[in-house]
Please model this.
Amino acid sequence: MNRLWMLGPLAWRNLWRNPRRTLITLAVVAVGVWSILAFDVMFKAWEQSSLEESLRLLTGEGQIHATGYLDDPGVGHSMPYRSGALLGALNGPAVGAWAPRVRVPAIIQSEYRTRAITLVGVEPAAERRVSDLPGQILAGRYLANDREIGIVIGGDLAVKLKTRLGKRVIVMAQAADGHLAEAGLPIIGLFGNTTPAQDEYAFVGLGAAQSTLGLNGQLSEIAFDAGPSAKLEDTVAALQRAAPGLDTETWMALSPLAYTMQQFSTSYTAIWLMVMFVLMAIGIVNTQLMAVFERTREFGLMQALGMRPATIVAQVMLESALLIGVGVLCGIVLMAVTLLPFTNGLSLGFLSAGSEMAGGGGVLYPRLDPVDTVVYATIVWVLGVMTTLWPARTAARTPPVVAMAAN
Model:
């Protein structure tokens, strides 16, 4: 320890014998650390955005369907309205909120155009507990009750249909008895979620949808969220026990893209860390080798005066540790300065459309994680110091007579 205290000031002074080389190395390390940490924060922000868009649109934390509905989502695979053991489980402590729905493929027709959509019949009060969409109304209002004669569509869909709030559209879908059911409905609201959601979904009252499609009170699905103190797997198990003949799935199975992004976020960051570290290591090793070769006579003289080779290795490693440590700190500061202004939201601008098509949102909310910052910064620092072991051993292995004779 005393030796390190002696070598510390000497190592720091040696770093600034060639300020330009030191500053270049600091810049390489700082930019590398900044890119690793910023990539981790932004990727996790996009992952969280993707997850929230999926869960808070219609998916919820899980859903219950009749067997075969997910393969053929039509009126032919419907289930009875909640009752008995299932109703008891839904109202139990394991479930925080739930909402019954009818969801079927349909056609919507305006005066000018026709589009394929997914028609969703909802109970407005229940839907507000599991979905953010009722609060994303751009114009008009959401459904007041499940029997209301009206329809809520996406703002983008209204543009593509060349229609507007208050106009009437025709909705057509296959009824339970096989005939083509249709209904003329006034547009009472326009919602503004992501573009894919605006183009795909249209909402009507649950009772009105059941009456039009002849479902006699049957449902397509029940979306649910786990209770505040319940684990999702425990909630699913309780619902499966209550309704063994139905298909109960978690959001991981229903939204595979969001689940994949969550599972692989750490792997993606590790890959980027490896790529950036290789680039940093090349620069660090090159600059340290140059420094060692320039100081060959110095190291030879120090050995001739009695300094052990291990001490020379320690000195070179200490210089590298100080250099890389300062670079890592600069990278952390740069990352914080770059991302802190956007913690209240970062609009992706022209990239929003691509993010929405991939399941994310147009606005990301970066969150700086101190644990991740410390972990990745420590990994870069330790690996960076280890890469300088080669130049350090090179300096210590040169015999003093040969080293002092070098030009």
Observations:
- The chain has a mean pLDDT of 82.
